[in-house]
Each structure stands twice: as C-alpha cells, then as structure tokens.
Hints:
- The chain is of the alpha+beta class.
- It contains six helices and eight strands; from the N terminus they run αααββββααβαβββ.
- The protein has helices at residues 5-16, 25-30, 32-44, 78-83, 125-142, 150-153; strands spanning 50-54, 59-60, 67-68, 73-77, 143-147, 157-159, 163-165, 170-174.
- The protein starts with a helix and ends with a strand.
Amino acid sequence: MSKNPRVQTKLKAELGNNKYQRLSTEKLDSLDYLNCVIQEVLRFSSPAITTFRTVTIDDRLPASGAQLYKGDEIMINIYNLTRDKRYWKIDPNLFYPERFQGEDKDHHPYALIPFGGGHRQCIGQDLARLELKAIISRLMQQVTFSDGGPEVNAGGHNQTVTLMPKNVGVTITFD
C-alpha cells in the first residue's frame, strides 16, 4: 500500500462508509475493490513462489515435447506465472487491482495459484484470505501508509520458497 497511494485512496473510499460497523464475512465479501486488492496482493507477492508436484502418469509437455514419467518431481514456478505476459492482458509487472474488474478478470485459472492448485491446494487458503480482508480493511480505516523512500526500500528480495524484501521502510500516519 505504501508504494500505491492511488490504490490506498480508492480502498479507503470503499471502506469509508463502514468505519464503525462490524465487518461480517458477508460484508467483507461484498467489498469488491478490497477483494481485487487482495487478489492483486496475492498475485504480486505470492506467499509461496514455487510448488512441487509428483507426476502421476507418463505424459509429454505439449509446447516443448519434453517427456515426463510417472514419479518425476516437477517444480511449478508460481512467481513466473504471475508475471507471464501470455496470461495477463494488463502489464503483469504493475500493481493494478482493477485488472480483476476488467481485462484480466477472466484470466487463465492456473495463472494465479498463490495457494497451489488442484486437490493439493492449501487447506487454509479461505482462512488466510479472510484474515487478509479483515486486517487490511481495519488498517485502511485507521492509518495511512507512505513509502519510506528509495534509500530504505532499495535492495531487492531474498528468494527462498517465499519471496521477502531485503529492506522495507514504511511511514505510518494515524488518520
């Protein structure tokens, strides 16, 4: 949010009418822009950047013709899927929540799999999304985040199974 004041302002406007209301799961689910922001946060900074699967039948990849054998372990690069221009009409390197209301609303179902996919997807993903909605909505009603500046935020990412920024500098102002 600190790097995207336009998004923060738009989200605060959507949440503005609910500042002192109890936010039920139904209310949180009805907040369209909040849901788009959550989708974009998960796309732009997925909790895991890779997942592994075991091939269950002999098969061949259609594009390359590479042979896969039952029992092979394959790695799916979630990070690359979220940045692949073949799957996103709007520039995938932009943080742009509106993509989920417009051109990229009907993206390929496996272009965004922050919690994995298929029958092995994360069992806790619904709880994680609910927690994100509740925390982001309440924070956006109480504070404004500002970028701490390029000198504090320079330095790239540490990449393991998850992607974490090396340095993060944020200014928090209470509204």
